[in-house]
Every structure is written in C-alpha cells, then in structure tokens.
Specification:
The complex is a heterotrimer of chains A (218), B (276) and C (257).
Chain A lengths: L2 H24 L4 H38 L6 H21 L4 H33 L5 H17 L1 H6 L2 H11 L1 H25 L18
Helix pairs in contact in A: 1-2, 2-3, 5-7, 7-8
Chain B lengths: L2 H6 L3 H17 L10 H12 L5 E7 L5 H17 L3 E6 L4 H7 L1 H7 L8 E6 L3 H10 L1 H4 L13 H5 L8 E6 L2 H15 L3 E5 L4 H4 L9 E4 H11 L5 H23 L1 H10 L4
Parallel strand pairs in B: 1-2, 1-4, 2-3, 4-5, 5-6
Chain C lengths: L7 H22 L10 H4 L1 H11 L3 E4 L11 H21 L3 E5 L5 H14 L9 E3 L4 H14 L3 E5 L5 H11 L3 E6 L5 H7 L2 E4 L1 H11 L2 H8 L2 H19 L4 H6 L2
Parallel strand pairs in C: 1-2, 1-4, 2-3, 4-5, 5-6
Helix pairs in contact in C: 1-10, 3-4, 4-5, 4-9, 6-7, 9-10
The chains are: A mainly alpha (218), B alpha/beta (276), C alpha/beta (257).
Chain lengths: 218, 276, 257
C-alpha cells in the first residue's frame, strides 16, 4: 500500500467521523442518527478498555523479562507486580468485587498506597511552594502575597489573627482568579478549535503516529 | 552561611518533619479555632434546605483512595442532611473506584439512620463514558444500568421504578476529584434541564468551579475546609472539623517559614526599592 | 435543518472559525507569510536537549496522568505527541538518550510510532526500554518520579493533561537537577508548573505547539486565524460587562440562543 493511501484513508475516516459527530451535536436529527453518534463515541471507550489490556500485556512482558534475567535490585519488585497483575483479576472472577476478601485486599493495598502517595504529594507541594514563594520581583511578590492570603482564608488561624484575611482571600479566589482562568479557557477553546480543524483536514497527523514535517507535502 | 541565608534554604527533611509534627499534635490536643462558613458552603446547605422534603437527588460519588479523607466527611454530612430531610438518593459513580467507597461511607450513614435500601436509596454502581454517560443517565437511567450494584434488576427496585430520568430528579451532586467530570455535570444537567448542581471537590479544583457559582452551581464544598463548614452547619462534628486544627498549625508554620525565608529579599527591597 | 436550542451561537462561531482558518490557509498557500510571537518554551527545546547531551544524561518526556484519546482531553494528548516528535527528532539528531513514561495505553502505539519515525529520519534504531508503560494513578505518580530520579535526567518535558502528579513530577525533576519544560491546558495544574519549571506552555500554547514546530505557512495560518476571534471575544467581554452593569440582558439572551 503506497504511503499516500496509508495516510489518505485514515485522514478521510477522521474527517468523516469528526464531521458526523459535530453535525449530530449541533443539528436536530432523528434519534436513530444521534444514537449512531453515541455509538461511535462509545467505541472510543471500548478501544481504551482494549488498549488497557494491551498495556497490561506489555507491562507484564517487561517485568517477566526482568524476572527471567534476575535483574539485580529490580527482579523482586517485578515479581511482586507480576503476581499482583494476576491476583486481583482472579479474586474478581472467583469472589466478585462486592466480596469482603476483595474489599479487604483493596483496602490494605490500593487504598492505603493511594492515601500515602497523596500525602507525599502534599509534602512535595509544601516544599516546592516554600522554594517558589520568594519576593524576587514584582510578579513573584504578587504570587507570594496571593498565596499567603488564600492560605490564611482557608485555615481558621487566619480569621483568628485578623478578620480581614478571609475577606482578602475570598476576594482573590472569587475575582482575579476566575477572571484569569476564564481568559485562559477562552483562548484555549480557540486553540482547541484550531487543532480540531487541522486534524480533520489532515494538516496535523499526530493521531496517525506520523511525525511532524513528514507527509506535509500532500 | 548566616542565619538569614539558612532560613532561605531550609532543608526539605526539616520542613517535612515540622509539618508532620504539627499535623499530629491536634490529634492529641485539639485547639478548637472558630471556623468561618463561606458563601459557597452556605449555598450548598441552602439548596438542600429549600428543596421540598422527599426530593430525589442523584449523587455521582467518584472519590478514590487519594481524596477520600478530603471529601468523605463533607459528603457524609451532606448525605446525612439529605436523609434527615427524607430525600431519596441514587448513587452512581463515574470513577471505577467509587462504588467501593459508596458501600463504605454513604451506605454506613444510611444504615445508621435506618434508611431502607431500594426505597430511600439505591446504589447503581459505575457507569462508563464520562460526559456521554452522564447525558445518557439523565436521559434515561435504564440505558446505562440494567441492574444495581448488587445485581438486582432495576425493575425490581421501588426507587428506580419511580425515578426514570431527569424529570423525576430534583438535585445533582458531584463528589470527586475529576475537574472535567465536574464541568460535565454542569453541561449535561444544569444547562439543559435547569436542575441545581452541588459540587464537593478537592482544593485544586476550586478556582475552576468558582466561576460557575452561584448561577450554574448552587453550592460548593471545597475540600477539607468545605467539609468542616458543612459539618458545622448540620451540627454533626466529624473528622473534617478535627482536621482543621492540623490545617491551621501547618499553614501557620508554612507561612512563618516563607516569611523567614524572604528576609533577605525584604531587606534588599527596602534598601534598593522594588525592581522589575 | 434546525440547530439544537442553546447551541446556535456556538455553531455559528464554529462555522465562522472554520471559514476563517480556511481563508488564512488559502492566503498562506498563495504565498502570504505570517509572523507569530516566539514561544520561549519551544525555542528552548534544542538548547535543553543539547545541555543533556553535554552532561551525558538522558532526556525524559511524559504526557500526563489522565485522559484518553476518546475523551475531551484527547487534544492535549495529541499536542503532547506533536511536541514529542520534535523532541525525539532532536534526540536522534544529537544522539541523546530519550526515556518516555507513558500512561495512556491507547496513546502508546502513537508514541512508539512517532519515536520510531523520528529516529528513522536519522538512520538510528530506537533503543529498547525507551518507552516505559506505567499504569495510571498513584503508580504513575511514583513510577515516573522514580524514573526521573533514577535516570538523573537532565531535561524533563511534561506536556499534556496532568492531575496532582504535576507538582510531584516537577519537584522530582527539580531535585534531579533537570531543566524542565512543561505545558498543560488544565488550569488547576498550571500554577504548579509555573512555580517549579524553567519554561511553561500555557493552555493554547500547547495546542499551537505542533503547528509552531512544523512552521509550515498552511499550519501557521490556523494559529493566526484565531486572533480575530480573540479580539471579538475581548470586545464582547467589554460590551457584556458594561451592559451587565446597567442590567441590560439582550446580549446574554442572544448568546444563550
């Protein structure tokens, strides 16, 4: 199959499905057609689910290789991962996700690890903010003051020190912050439309795994 | 290195140790600082108070292990409030982990209040498709769910025989950490059907959801702070109120460290004036 | 044909955008050149990778811990892949070691294909273990951070939709001594990148990144074509604020059509 056809067919499919989905979203159509659009969109969910299985196979393959070669310092962790990849699905199929054993193992492992990681993220955030909050220039001073006022608004200690802190913090959260976010979102929305336009017409072919610059001649 | 330079470059381990100690102290010696209730939390409370008794609320309970402690207390307080007003609750989840936490937390609240499964509340489980899933549920619950989380057909459950789609739903609540799902609930529920939406979300998402308050989102519980405020409003003290003391101490220490670390910069600013 | 109620203005703006972009592309094909402002983060890619080569340390890329190709975050993922193609080409050209941590299983084939295509241009083979698949969630947060610190990367690129792992990965890169270029359209994570990273791409910058890197007039035309609408939105905002101050609602009614 020539390169032109290899690129043209996926681009045509992208264009047709994209335009159909846009059309159905904006135009009043019979429910049979809008159901078709929902079905196409739900294919995406199915593909992601299949891709998750594919990713798990790749993960397992990499870790089994490390176990086979007894990679120093790593193979024992790879063994843990490989065992876990089988234990949870087996438990699900044997006992179901509403069973007490499944919930117990979930609570002991995933739940606790998730909490621990989230807690570590807090400490990481605190230390990185400590390093970042320096009044080096006007912009960083504004960042510092805004951060401090918002923190004093959140924590009861702020109101205990001075009643004005919650008012200032609320003002920062409710006035300049949403304003800035709205501006960013509006600009991003047009960027999104532009990238959609480029993808639909085939100017951008990243979704086909084609590197930038390649194929732009057609 | 003089003292101000040391304060400017405090080691990470020292900061983390101080924060850890300050987090733990209030567990043994609560301080009890007064908590101010902000307008977004009041909005959530008012929304539930102003709906008639016996209203139906659909709750997307999509917490995960990471944010459960942040949001569960506030969610529990809100669910307690709704049950006290004899609301009928339908629990769904757009996150795969959500259903397990529904069984652990809200169901616990329901059982303590003597609420009957199938009549006062029902748990439908996970739904796929994110925004499309929300649209489908509001259009017709039956298109997303044939059975509830425990495998019982919806045709055999009293509540799901009465509540089929958005026409029977009076309130939608999103509890979770998904910024995009949070906005999807506004787009797919409030915009087309004018159903009030209340959000219980993590701290990093506040700035994103605030612009929608109070027109499209009637109330917001913002992380641990919002949860503590709601517990105060419904007079049901819980872990969130307990956590606010820790929050105060840690934030206080953090602000102190930041100010001390800025001594050099403040000195430079005072001596040379503000530089661009 | 009837437009769905509540979406009339959206539809008209979308059609106007498409027509405007097409007009700018048409002008570009007829030889008109467009100048756009420099995006420092993208200009710095070669410098950052060159620094990594000098130090003999790898370059790391990751496209975030959330989203998929079938949801609203897909454009950010594709934007990240667009930047990755430039990064991988530069790494192939300068013979820098590239390590990629990928969370999205549906994006994995695109990432691998993009890197292979880039390396083939310079006649190089892609080393094994260039791309590491890490399942999403807390696994990714810790796994990618561990990869960054274990490999002691000198350049850390984070472009895509991120959640709470943003600050953790940025901090890991900072502790590894890496120069960091980050970009996301998720507004709640931007502040963390802004405080920790050396260069940042904010929202629409990442959508424009692929086009900016390509630099072809046709594609630049779509970036320039956004400007009339931004000016229109700016004017609408000013008019809207004035009207809302005096409680005049006709503009809101039109926009809600």
């Amino acid at each position: 199959m020539s390169n032109t056809i290899r690129r043209m067919i996926p681009t045509i499919i992208t264009f047709l499905i994209g335009m159909f989905t846009i059309f159905v979203y904006y135009i009043e159509v019979p429910s049979s057609i809008s159901d078709g659009s929902s079905t196409i969109i739900s294919w995406g969910t199915i593909i992601v689910a299949l891709a998750t299985g594919y990713g798990t196979i790749i993960l397992l393959r990499n870790h089994v290789r490390k176990i086979q070669t007894r990679q120093p310092g790593e193979w024992i962790y790879s063994l843990t991962i490989a065992v876990t990849i089988f234990v949870f699905p087996l438990l699900y199929f044997i006992a179901g996700d509403t069973s007490s054993i499944y919930k117990l193992i979930y609570d002991l492992t995933i739940s606790n690890i998730g909490l621990a990681v989230y807690a570590i993220v807090f400490f990481s955030l605190a230390t990185s903010s400590y390093k970042a909050f320096r009044a080096r220039n006007v912009n960083s001073t504004i960042l510092l003051l805004a951060g401090l006022f918002v923190m004093l608004q959140i924590a009861p200690i702020g109101a205990a020190i001075w009643g004005g802190f919650p008012i200032l913090g609320n003002w920062i959260l409710n006035v300049p912050t949403p304003g800035a976010f709205r501006g960013i979102n509006i600009a991003a929305a047009f960027g999104l439309i532009a990238i959609g336009f480029r993808t639909l017409l085939g100017y951008d072919r990243g979704h086909l795994g084609i590197s930038e610059g390649e194929g732009m001649e057609d | 290195m003089n003292i101000t330079e040391r304060l400017d470059k405090l080691p990470t381990w020292f900061l983390n140790l101080v924060f850890l100690i300050l987090l733990v102290i209030p567990m043994f010696q609560p301080i009890g600082l007064p908590i101010q209730i902000n307008e977004m939390t009041r909005g959530a409370y008012r929304t539930i108070e102003e709906l008639p008794e016996g209203s139906v609320a659909i709750i997307d309970y999509s917490v995960g292990p990471a944010n459960i402690l942040d949001l569960a207390s506030g969610a529990d307080a809100m669910i307690y409030h709704m049950f006290k007003r004899n609301f009928k609750l339908i629990f769904i989840s757009s996150a795969a982990d959500g259903p397990m936490f529904v069984e652990k937390y809200p169901v616990n609240v329901a059982e303590k209040l003597g609420k009957v499964y199938g009549i006062d509340y029902v748990h439908l489980g996970y739904f796929a498709g994110a925004e499309m899933g929300i649209a489908a549920v509001m259009n017709d619950i039956g298109t997303e769910y044939e059975n509830d989380y425990h495998g019982t057909s919806l045709n055999e459950i009293s509540l799901t025989q009465e509540v089929k789609n958005h026409e029977q739903i009076n309130l939608a609540i999103y509890i979770g950490g998904g910024a995009d799902t949070m906005i999807s609930w506004i787009r797919q529920v409030n915009t087309p059907y004018n159903i009030p939406v209340v959000q219980v979300v993590g701290g990093t998402m506040i700035a994103q959801v605030t612009p929608y308050f109070p027109t499209q989102v009637s109330g917001i519980l913002a992380s641990l702070q919002g949860s503590a405020e709601y517990e105060l409003l419904v007079k049901r003290p819980g872990k969130a109120i307990g956590g606010m003391d820790s929050l105060s101490l840690v934030y206080g220490a953090f602000i102190l460290f930041v100010l001390l670390g800025n001594i050099n910069q403040i000195k430079a600013l005072l001596s040379k004036g503000v530089r661009k | 044909m009837i437009i769905v109620s509540g979406r009339v203005i959206d539809f008209l703006i979308l059609v106007a955008c498409f027509i405007t972009f097409y007009v700018y592309v048409y002008w570009a094909e007829r030889g008109k050149t467009f100048k756009i402002r420099k995006i420092p983060a993208l200009e710095a890619v070669s410098e950052v990778i060159g620094r990594a080569v000098e130090q003999g340390r790898p370059v790391h890329f990751t496209s975030g811990g959330t989203g998929s190709l079938s949801d609203a975050l897909a454009p950010q993922l594709l934007a990240g892949v667009g930047v990755l193609s430039h990064i991988s080409k530069t790494c192939a050209e300068l013979d820098a070691k590239l390590v990629v941590s990928e969370v999205h299983p549906d994006l994995l084939p695109l990432v691998v294909s993009t890197i292979e295509t880039s390396y083939q241009i310079y006649g190089r083979d892609v080393p094994e273990d260039t791309v590491t698949y890490i399942p999403r969630g807390r696994t990714y947060t810790i796994g990618a951070a561990a990869l960054i610190q274990r490999e002691k990367v000198a350049a850390n690129f984070m472009i895509g939709p991120f959640t709470h792992e943003a600050v953790f990965l940025a901090e890991a890169g900072s502790e590894a001594g890496a120069m960091q270029i980050a970009g996301t359209a998720r507004v709640n994570q931007m502040p963390f990148f802004a405080t920790v990273c050396d260069y940042i791409l904010i929202a629409e910058d990442i959508y424009a990144a692929g086009a900016y890197i390509q630099g072809t007039p046709k594609v630049l035309g779509t970036i320039v074509g956004e400007d009339p609408f931004k000016i229109l939105m700016f004017c609408l905002l000013i008019i809207g604020v004035i009207l809302a101050t005096f409680n005049v609602t006709w503009l809101m009614d039109i926009l809600n059509m």
